[in-house]
Known about the structure:
By secondary structure, this protein is an all-alpha fold. 75% of the residues lie in helices and 0% in strands. The chain contains four helices and no strands. Helix 2 (9-18) packs parallel to helix 3 and helix 2 (9-18) packs across helix 4. The longest helix is centred in the last third of the chain and has 46 residues, at 44-89. The mean pLDDT is 92. Residues 59-88 form a coiled coil. Keywords: Coiled coil.
Amino acid sequence: MAFLGKAxxxxxxxxxxxxGEMVTNDLRVVDLRELITKSKKYEVxxxxxxxxxxxxxxxxxxxxERQNEERxxxxxxxxxxxxxxxxxxxxP
Length: 92
């Protein structure tokens, strides 16, 4: 159960929802931990595996978002260079 204390709040929220628990915005990490451990569907190994999967999904999503932001930034830089080149050579 110590693994719940190391989890991010967003992962605990996702886990509680997956377990069918009602989650409100005012819940703290401690409250979420209690909600999860008192769930009728709570089994240590199952919840640990679900939490790992949830965390892995979040990390992958964050990685993809960073990559997309970097690509958009690089595209904007290239477009700016093209505009500057066009302006230098007098293209509309």
